[in-house]
Amino acid sequence: MKKKVPENFLPDEIYEQSNFPTKRIISICLLFVFAGLFFNFPIKETIRGSFIKGINSFKACPISYEDIEVSFFLPKIIIKKPSISSICFKPASKNLNLNDVIIRPSIPSFYPPGVRLYASIKHDKSSIGIYPSMSWGQIDIKIPKSNINASLLAYLTGGNQYFEGDFSLEAAAVIKKQKLNKLQVKIESKNLNIPQQNIQDFIIPKIPLGPFSLRGVLDRNMQFKIKPGQLILGDNSSPLHARFGGKVRIRNDNASMSSMEISGEARIDKELLNEFIIIKTKLGREGPDGYYPLKLTGTLDNPRINGKSLLSF
Predict the structure, then answer these.
(1) Which residues, at least 6 apart from 159, have a Cβ–Cβ distance to it below 8 Å?
(2) What is the pLDDT of residue 212?
(3) Using CB atoms within 10 A as the burial measure, which of 135, 190, 218, 269 is most buried?
(4) Is 218 helix (H, G, I), strand (E, B) or coil?
């Protein structure tokens, strides 16, 4: 039977709250707000401007580039065709032109806490990966095992090709208040050669060293310290086998004029000694094991062996 109700009677359902999707509407509105900010706020230009400002701040070592691109797909920043001015390399040689440098975000640094990036730098046969971590007042830089060709090192020696071969590089640096605080370096090679060259009218014969190893620490005073036996040239099968330790005081204005105090011992094949006549007059007495005690002083540009200039008789 149909229930009869008065004309002015309202059912209970009219007082119940309807299932209106309030939370969903709020979420959609917030999504539109963030989307509007993202597409209207110039994020790319802000990031790009920050990098341009940073690159332009290197007044003593100018860096030019074709363009800087910012991509949010697989987030990255691309510095197109960067070129490091020859002014940065003393004595000056020529500009160092690099492949496109790609910078990506990496896992955040927990000690010290801060933002961590990854940069890939390539030139000719050299490929270097760099992880800079930026925290308050400090930048930590780590270079995992990377490949460097000797042609890249020539930019640090005024364009002179003192070495031939390939190197592996590992390094860690700490920069505080925009100044180098500490740099640890490990460089190794399996195919190092010293090509024949003319240095101040003295002919240096070709020396196929083979293995090479260097470990050292550069401090805030630009003094590079090498523990005894951590600079190794050649091995038992090489025409030259040497083990050294000591220190080199690096000059920022002219690296070739850096002074050194290095000591150790070296075995030199008689065939090489006959070709490298000038060094025979600098050697002391040969030890019973066939090694000569050596002390290297002077500058990298004009070294002295056992107190005698290498470049004069």
Answers:
(1) 93, 94
(2) 96
(3) 218
(4) strand
For residue 257, what pLDDT is reported? 84
- Residue ranges, the chain, pLDDT below 50: 20, 37, 41
CA atoms within 13 A on the CB side of 138: 11
Coil vs helix vs strand at 202: strand
pLDDT in tens, 39-52: 554 566 777 777 77
User: b/e for 165-199, b at 16 or more Cβ within 10 A?
Assistant: bbbebebbbbbeeeebeebebbbbbeebbbeeeee
Of the candidates 267, 201, 195, the one whose C-alpha atom is nearest the C-alpha of residue 236 is: 267
Q: How far apart are CA 215 and CA 52, in angstroms?
A: 35
The C-alpha angle 166, 244, 258, rounded to 5 degrees, equals: 75
pTM of the model: 0.76
* Residue 270, CA distances (Å) to 69, 71, 197, 274, 279 in order: 58, 61, 20, 6, 12
With H, G, I as helix, E, B as strand and everything else as coil, classify residue 53: helix
User: Residue 247, SS3?
Assistant: strand
Block residue for tokens 């697989």: 74
pLDDT tens digits, residue range 14-61?
A: 555 555 455 565 666 566 555 554 555 456 677 777 777 877 777 778
In angstroms, the CA 288 to CA 97 distance is 50
Alpha helix (H) ranges present in the chain?
22-40, 43-56, 150-153, 270-275, 277-280
